[in-house]
Structure formats: structure tokens, C-alpha cells
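#dry-run=false #mode=assembly
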Amino acid sequence: SVKDKVAIITGSNSGIGLGVAEELARLGARVVLNSFSDSEEDHALAERIAAEHGTDVIYISADMSDAEACRSLVTKAAEHFGTVDILINNAGIQHVAAIEEFPIGKWDAIIAINMSSAFHTTAAALPLMRKSGWGRVVNIASAHGLTASPYKSAYVAAKHGVVGLTKVTALETAQEPITANAICPGYVMTPLVEKQIPETMEKYGMDRDTAVKEVLLARQPSKEFATVEQIGGTVAYLCSDAAEQVTGTTISIDGGWTAL
Ligand code: NAD
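#status=ok
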């Protein structure tokens, strides 16, 4: 059970990370929220979730594009709570451009935030998990960790990399009570995606339903978005005893996208 376990969720002041943090808090985990903004709202969010679920929640600012900051996020969490049991690597950004026009800085940032950060946090967290004798690493990859789309070179490369890192993490911990898995969502309803709906309706002169089904969800056969609650529920499953032998694999939550 995740009750009283210490969970770090990188990039958790919005979207999927926040949904996962809320689900783990609801189940009684002690939670570390993270982003790089360090605003009053970030700290207030931690207080709100703590009060709502009667558990400990703190916010630790750390820029996931910075190797040392990734590692010290884990160290600071362990200093505060005594250990780290659950590591959810979720922070991520996107940029869309053809390869020859892809800005070098954007490539480097996406590789760092979406992929290398998971290497650094995992490296810092595994010794703590070994010491306490239990651990769960869940990397939030993407359908783009298993399949590609044009103009998303950095994102697709980073997410495929995360899936590879997940397998290596699983093999290096295979004989220990630690598992590592990747969740591969298709399109998930987050504030970011919600914002794209009116923009798409206007651009193509479509009503909401048509814009969602024919443009945003063009590749998602279910024609439905996944929800952050569903991602949270999958994380909860991976942290449960039922998933003890589930390691080094991917779980797609993509309405059939990667079955195409
Ligand atoms: P989001 O923009 O709502 O959340 C991204 C989070 O990452 C935010 O909390 C942000 O503060 C944080 N972040 C960004 N840069 C950071 C940095 N340098 N340091 C620390 N934190 C940083 O987006 P989301 O849709 O919730 O995405 C979360 C993850 O899920 C990403 O890895 C994304 O690739 C993945 N994903 C999302 C979808 C989707 O449809 N929304 C689908 C598949 C995969």
C-alpha cells in the first residue's frame, strides 16, 4: 500500500503530475510536489492537497533541465521525509518543428527535461529505495515513446529514451523489491490540451466535437481523451502489491493509438 510512502512527482504543479500527486495523496502517501517556478501558488497548492487528504505534502522547487538540481530534489525530499519510496518522472515540455529548423536550444532542453532528468533522479533515488527495501519508479513517457509523429524529433527521441531507461532500471533492480515501469499516454485532457480546443475550432471553423475528434484525437481510435485521474489510477496500480512482478514494461493509456 502507498499509505505513508514518500512520493516525488516531478513537474507536478499542473496537468498529469498534479493528477498523480492528488491520487497518491488521496491514498495516504506523503507527497513532494515539484516545478521550477517556486511561486506562492505552488506552496499554497501543497497546503491545499495536504489539508484535503490529511497527509504531508511539500513543494520543492528544482529545474529538471539541471542535472544537479534533479539529484538534489531527491536529496532534499529524503532530508525532509527520511527517504524516497516512489519516484514519478513526469516533467516534460514539447516543441514542434522540422528537424532542419529545430532550434538547438529546444532540442537540448527537451532531451534534458524529458529524458536526462529521469536518469538523474533515478540515480539519486535507487540507493534510498535499496536501503528502505521497497521502491517504485514510474516514468511518464508517451505514445511517442513507442511510435513517432513528424516534427516532434526531440520529444519522440526523448520519450523513446525514457522507455529504454525504464527497461535498464528494471533489469538493474530485478532481484530487489523495486520495480520500474513507463506509462505511455496518448492525448490526456489537461489545461494545456483544453486551451487548444477553442484555437482548433477557430482555425478550422469547426464545432467543438468535430475539432476534438477529427483534429486533436485524429490518431486516438477511442476518440476520447484519457484523464489525469486515469493516469493517477495506473500509478496507484503500479505501486500496489498486484504489480510486484510488473517491471521493465510500458502501459499504454492511449485509446488504441499504438494498436494502429
Ligand atoms: P503540463 O505542461 O501541464 O505539465 C508539465 C509539468 O512539467 C508542469 O508541472 C511544469 O511545471 C513541469 N516542468 C516543465 N519544465 C520543467 C522544468 N524545467 N523543471 C521542473 N518542472 C518542469 O503537461 P502535461 O500534459 O501534464 O505533461 C506531463 C507529462 O506527461 C510530460 O512528460 C508529457 O510529455 C507527458 N504526456 C502528456 C500527454 C498529454 O496529452 N497531456 C500525453 C503523453 C505524455
